[in-house]
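REQUEST ID: PR-0412
SUBMITTED BY: lab tech R.K.
PRIORITY: routine
TASK: structure prediction, single protein chain
INPUT:
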Amino acid sequence: MNIKTLFFGITTDFVGASEIQIDVAENTSIKAFKSVLKKAYSQLEKINSYAIAVNEEYATDDLILKNGDVVAVIPPVSGG
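STATUS: complete
OUTPUT:
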């Protein structure tokens, strides 16, 4: 399955792009997708946590991806 993946904030620097296509097996969960990301982009290990949104809605680790989904990787933010 082809998953359009968007990166924001520091994750863009870690990956070297703001958008990439990632090919994953059918029935891939968000938890498994995170593992694929960390294996391909080890720099992502530098942040403790990040949110995942699928098709503009925050997703839990047990959500199963579908072909054509758009996944956003959102790092923690701080401000003041």
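NOTES: The beta strands are 2-7, 19-23, 51-54, 57-58, 70-74.
REVIEWED BY: pending
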